[in-house]
Structure formats: C-alpha cells, structure tokens
Amino acid sequence: MNHGISLRKLGFYPSYRKSVLRNLATSLILNGRIETTEARAKEVRRIVDKLITKAKEDNLNTRRYAHSVLFDKEAVYKLFELAKEYKDRPGGYTRILKLAKYRRGDGTPLVLIELVKE
C-alpha cells in the first residue's frame, strides 16, 4: 500500500532531488515553459504553485522564502511580477501538456509545463 507517500523520489538522493526541482522551478519562472518528464513536471508544479500563491502577498517574509527556493534574483523579481497578474486567480497557475515525444535514452514520455496566461 502507498498510504502517506507525499512526493516522488525521481531516482535521486534527497539533496540532489531538491536541487533539480529548484532548478526546474527557476527555469519555469524565467522562461514561462519548459520541457521535462511527466514525474518531474508534476513535482515542480507543486513548488511553483505554492511560490506564486505566497508571492501574492508581497512582504519581506515571502521574498526571503522565494530567495531560499529559487536560484536566481531575476527569477524572484519575475515571480512577484507574475503574482500581480494572478491576483484574481484562485490557483492552477501551471498547465501540463503531454507531447508525442519520448526521451531517447530510456523512452520516458516528455511533457511541456507552462505558466497559464490569462
């Protein structure tokens, strides 16, 4: 039984997994869309949606939290600009689209994760 499983391990040890997800979140915020595997996209969606929700309340504490998660100062600035655009949206800031592509090495299906524009 899989009760209480709260995250995907993604085949990485914990510190590397955290680093990969932080990199993906930073890239998604900076570029607006990235291509990755389905499992990684589902995990990074959790992180980015929480970041945008917290960024709606622009104060020192949320800025410090964003700096602790994202690797780039420019990504933090862009995050708070995005949060202004999503101020009336209650959630669901990202969209995952399945592609008809597979990764060459192991055949893992690829998806496109993007920020929803209104």
Structural write-up:
The protein is α+β, with helices and mostly antiparallel strands and 118 residues long. It has one domain: Alpha-Beta Complex (50s Ribosomal Protein L17, Chain: A). Helix content is 50%, strand content 18%. A three-stranded antiparallel β-sheet has the order 1-3-2. Strand 2 and strand 3 (109-115) form a beta hairpin. Helix 1 (14-31) packs across helix 2 and helix 1 crosses helix 4. The protein is globular and about 45 Å long. The relative contact order is 0.19. Belongs to the bacterial ribosomal protein bL17 family.
Strand fraction equals: 15-25%
Assembly state: single chain
CATH architecture field: Alpha-Beta Complex
Low-confidence spans: none
Q: What order do the strands of the largest sheet run in, or round the barrel if closed?
A: 1-3-2
Q: What's the main sheet like?
A: 3 strands, antiparallel
CATH class: Alpha Beta
Q: How many domains would you count in the coordinates?
A: 1
Annotation, overall tally of beta strands: 3
CATH topology annotation:
50s Ribosomal Protein L17, Chain: A
Shape: globular
Total number of helices: 4
Order of helices and strands: HEHHHEE
Assign a percent range to the helix content: 40-55%
Compute the CA-based radius of gyration: 15 Å
State the separation between the terminal residues, measured CA to CA: 40 Å
Average pLDDT level:
94
Organism: Caldisericum exile (strain DSM 21853 / NBRC 104410 / AZM16c01)
Subunit structure: Part of the 50S ribosomal subunit. Contacts protein L32.
Family: Belongs to the bacterial ribosomal protein bL17 family.
Keywords: Ribonucleoprotein, Ribosomal protein
